[in-house]
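step=predict obj=HTH lysR-type domain-containing protein n=330
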Amino acid sequence: MDYRVDPFDLQLFEAVVASGSITAGAEAMSLSLAAASARMKALEHRVGVRLLERSKSGAVATDAGRALSRQAHRVLAELDSLHVAMSAFGHGLRGTVRLLCNTVAMVEALPPRLGRFLATHPDIDVELQEMSSDASLQALRGGVADVAIVADHVDTGGLTARPWLEDELVALLPAGGRPRASVRLVELLDQPFVGLGAESGLGRFIQMQAARSGRVPHHRVRVSGFEAVARLVEAGAGVAVMPRGAASRWLTPGLRIARLQEPWARRTLLICHSAQAPSLPGVRALIEALVEPMAPSMPSTLSSAVSSSASTSSGPASTSAGPSRRASRR
């Protein structure tokens, strides 16, 4: 059996079976009687069985013809669905955008903006994955992601990067002892840590900063969310480093916040993508939605929680494709 069946022949066959006549089927498909008859004979030759019983009064499907008609109806319906789906892609109405982001963006600033985007773009899906800033840019350059939200300590050379939001990492400490407005990470390393998973973007970042002083944080426990981190610190399990927004949200009388003195603790989150990415309608729509200011009813939990000395930068203007100004901190 030759499986290379022309969908047009299936449509013609359906028209012949429905009308009971090759002549009527030919008219329905805008064919001459001779052309329609030739196509039906060629179809029978391809499938290897007689499909129609022909007579002077018309044409009736054989048992094999009725079986083919049932299958043809399903196949043609699937082809129609395929055509509709592909047309949507062709017009930029449907698609999937691959978005990578660091821990801070994932849990703080991104959810309300991403929720707004998904609500207003029902035909665009987002594949979201948390990843360290370095790994995100590597994936972006490798073409396995469309957009990445990263901290500005990484080298964005060769990519388009635009400032998005200000971010500050702080120390979360149990109340008691001598209150201090600020501490250095190396001082915290003398105490046990409570943190997120070792594979989280923030976990990797703190590990990297500690390694610069030749130290490794001793994590007594790792959990999956900042609320759990705060509750464990409050219980005396250790100290933690987290975004100021999260620390402020879960602050209780049993906790206190201290600024980290290191410059890397105050960062700008960047939206990065290749120069070609905005040519894809779904990617362009997501980027525009991310940089659009949030309505007063949905304030950014991140930008509202940073220190008063930090300025929020969420404008749409892109930086040059050269290295980040803070690349020397890598």
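step=describe
The CA atoms of residues 179 and 256 lie 8 Å apart.
step=end
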